Amino acid sequence: MALYGLLGFSAGLPFYMFSTVLALRLQAHGVALAVIGFFAWVQLLPTFKFVWAPLLDRYDIPGFARFWGKRRGWIMLAQLGIVSATAAMAWSANDANLPLTALFAVLLAFWTTTLEVAADAWRIELYPTQDAQGPIVAANLWGYRSAMVAAGSGALLLADVGGWSVAYLVIAAAAFLPFPLLVAMAPDRAHGGGRGVALGTGLVAAVVILSLAALATAVVGWLVLGLAARAGIDADSNVTPWVLGLCMVPFLLMAAALPRIRRATPGSRLRTSVALGPYVDFFWRYGVGALVLMAFVSLYRMGDVLALNLSKPMIKGLGYSLTQIGRADSVVALLASIVGVGLGGWMVTRWRMGVALAVGALFAALGNFGFVWLAHQPVSEPLLYVATAADQFGNGMAGAVFVVYLSLLVNPRYPGAQYAFLTGFAFLLPRLLAGAGGTMVGAIGYDGFFLLSGALSLAVMPFLPVLARIRPRADDGEDAA
Fold it and tell me: What is the pLDDT of residues 35-49, one digit of tens each?
């Protein structure tokens, strides 16, 4: 429990630094609201973690894995990536070069996501049942949300006093704290040298891997920005219709591939492939039900994701200072989130999953509606606390229930890859739409935007009776037992 609280803290600390805090930083430097919305697409990277998740199941990090094991080896590498990317964001904190800011934000998102993939795979291997998942997920999310609150509120308070560079450097230093604790932990296995040799080898390998990842990201980013410029996409572009059309593509592709997947035999290349096998297995087991499941997981957290990137710029625009927002995001948000996560973790151990999912969605919607209420109140810090507490309580409860539900859909044969796929797809459509959030606010205003985000949280209710009847197909072949 304590270990997973620590791992949650390690993953949650940098999240606000490439999402909410970055949005406020860009707003402070006069970046257009539509462009701030585009930066929400940095958060798309975690939705594609299924692309590299199989690598974490298959390969070891030299040095680190030899002494501390596969999962902790990847966690240690990811922490070094988080620290280096956060420090780089501090160096570019004036946002004079937005492509450079985007590069470092993408790297921070990548290594944060890699840490989550490794920790999630380990959790599912250790705790495969619903009763066992509830407490460990609660511990993980307590650490995660505590870190998010610490980063969000602490960074804003520091930025108000010492500037954005100081805020990011302090968060980078805090992100490094778990690394020596992991180094000091007992080994998983020790082959070919002691702790010092393994650490030295791992650090050299980490420098090489981090450098190659930064170079590859820079090349891809240069190509993407070039294509966007040629397509005429700028701060005045209305990208919402194009994003909505793009959101339909994954469902069309999955529906087209499903008949062939269902006919696949145990020895077919589709099911034995290292790269595709774990994902084909999900559709093979659930059949048409997989399409319903994917539609549901795409909607369940959509309201929260839409609200995340623009809630703080909206509050800042109402007249609240960074210090006031930081205080609201500190103790108030932390306590509300802890209570929400705790109740969510308790519900899944006592209630039917459908009931727990419905209650989580209801409170998530109320949290989004709270921003509409706040916008029509006089500027008052206690009222800001109420809206923040409602948002964090609903997010915490819905998040805890959702993590357990997704974990139960996973085949234990492919824990890392399938959980990465499910969580990635769960946030793919919401984060695509979040990138168009700035243009949506321009069209319907903040009130309409947050009413829409709350309504989307409630839109999952009709799915729940259908989900209760979906059962996975039994495995065939020699591994059926």
Answer: 777 777 787 777 777
3-state secondary structure 398-438: HHHHHHHHHHHHCCCCCHHHHHHHHHHHHHHHHHHHHHCHH
Contacts 24+ apart (CB under 8 A), 385-389: 385/328, 385/332, 388/328, 388/329, 388/332, 388/333, 388/336, 389/332, 389/333, 389/335, 389/336
The band of 478, judged by pLDDT with boundaries at 50, 70 and 90, is: very low
Whole-number Å distance between alpha carbons of 234 and 49: 27
Q: Provide the domain count of the chain.
A: 1
- At 262, which amino acid appears? R
Would you state the structure tokens that stand for residue 410, as one six-digit string? 């996973």
Phi, psi of 459 (to 5 degrees): -65, -10
Residue with tokens 């062939």: 260
Residue type, 103: L
- One-letter amino acid at 125 equals E
The percent of residues above 90 in pLDDT, for the chain, comes to: 18
Angle at 390 between CA 385 and CA 394, to 5 degrees: 145
The reply to whether 183 falls in a domain is yes
User: Is residue 388 one of the residues assigned to a domain?
Assistant: yes
Domain range for 132 is: 2-475
Rounded CA separation 317/327 (Å): 17
What DSSP character marks residue 192?
S
Tens digit of pLDDT for each residue in 152-200?
A: 777 888 888 888 888 899 888 888 877 888 888 767 665 556 788 888 8
Q: CB burial class (10 A; 0-12, 13-18, 19+) of residue 99?
A: exposed
What CATH number is associated with residue 343? Answer: 1.20.1250.20
DSSP string, 24-40: HHHHHTT--HHHHHHHG
24 domain residue, yes or no: yes
| 481 within a domain of the structure (yes/no) | no
In this structure, which amino acid lies at residue 119?
A
Please, what is the Cα angle at 75 between 70 and 81, to 5 degrees?
130
